[in-house]
Amino acid sequence: MVVLFDLDDTLVDHHTAFRAATRTLYDSLASSVPFDKFAATWAASQRRQYDRYLAGELSYDGQRLARVRDTVDPTLSDDEADRLFGTYLAAYEAAWTLFPDVLDCLHQLSDCRLGVITNGQEHQQRLKLARTGIAGHFACVVTSEAFGAPKPHPDIFRHACALLKADPEQTLFVGDSYDVDAVAARRAGLHGVWLDRAGVAGVTHSPPVIRSLRELAALVRR
Fold first, then answer.
1. Distance of alpha carbon 24 from the chain centroid
2. Could you give the CA distance from residue 52 to residue 29 in angstroms, rounded to a whole number?
3. 3-state class (DSSP) for residue 7
């Protein structure tokens, strides 16, 4: 069996690192805006500009600069915006941690071939795997930057299957986004599994759905 994983907020706790790095950026600015308002603006810009990146409207670096201008000052030069994003990025990288259920899951699936499909920069996403100590568990890592198209494009899922010489119909893909991960994987012919850590699944969400990666090994065996 082949099992493929999303990375951010599936294996690595992106949300907590994002929040900590947002605080560091805020403190570096000595802003008069309350932190909660600043954080909400930064998060909203991240979602908006990342969607533009996914749609091909911006480069990966371009969406980063746009986020800084949205939140701090629209007149910032590229160098100024890049410097401020660097402050955020250093803090974000320092806060990378695995979710508590990750290592147990990977050990339970040690007899499977494992891989990662992730939207993001090749260097940064591989660095996450290395710094959190799990890079050696994966036979392939496919990033949207290296492949040339992000999830939910079906070809990125099929490309990972091809690298592992795996039949998509015999491959599971697990991710924290119902649409971008689970549904997109199913449309590409894989078995898409939604990791619903927040427990928000409703009647409109088709199974399989799991609340923790500790449930994944049993699902694979079934």
1. 21
2. 26
3. coil
Q: Which residues contact 192 (CB under 8 A, 6 or more apart)?
A: 172, 173, 175, 181, 182, 183, 184, 185, 186
Query: CB–CB of 172/4 below 8 Å?
Result: yes
- Give the contacts of 89 (CB within 8 A, at least 6 positions apart): 21
- The answer to whether the CB of 81 falls within 8 A of the CB of 191 is no
pLDDT, tens digit only, all 222 positions of the chain: 999 999 999 999 999 999 999 999 999 998 899 999 999 999 999 999 988 987 889 888 899 999 999 999 999 999 999 999 999 999 999 999 999 999 999 999 999 999 999 998 899 999 999 999 999 999 999 999 899 989 999 999 999 999 999 999 999 999 999 999 999 999 999 999 999 999 999 999 999 999 999 999 999 998
pTM (two decimals): 0.90
Q: Within 10 A of 63 (CB to CB), how many other CB atoms are there?
A: 19
